[in-house]
Design brief:
9 strands, mainly beta, 5-stranded antiparallel β-sheet, 1 helix, Jelly Rolls
Amino acid sequence: MKPSFPKVITDLPEADIPFKGLRGWIAQGSDHQIVFFEIESSREVSEHSHTYTQWGIVVEGKMELTISGKTQICKKGDDYSIPPQAKHSAKFLAKSRVIDFFGEQTRFKPKDR
C-alpha cells in the first residue's frame, strides 16, 4: 500500500504493527504516542484492551468500531474515545486513515530499519 499521508508524517519512525494490512508512523512523546495509521479495506483489528486511554479520529474512510460491546460506524471527521481496560475491536469497511493518541509511550515499537 502506497502511503497517502504527507512526507512529513511518513518520515517519522514506522510502527511495528502486528495486524496485516495496517501501517503506522509514530510521533513519540515522553508519556504518550500519536500514531498515524493507514489501513487497507476489509482489514480487522481483533478484540483487545490496554491499561490506558486511546482517542482517535478518522481522517479518511470508514470503520465499524466496537467498544465494550457497543458498535458504531465511524467515518471521516468522527472521533472516538476508548477508556482504559475497555475491550475494543475494529473492522475497516474502506481504505482508511486514522490518527490515534495512546496515553502510554510504548504502545507500538518502531520497526527495525
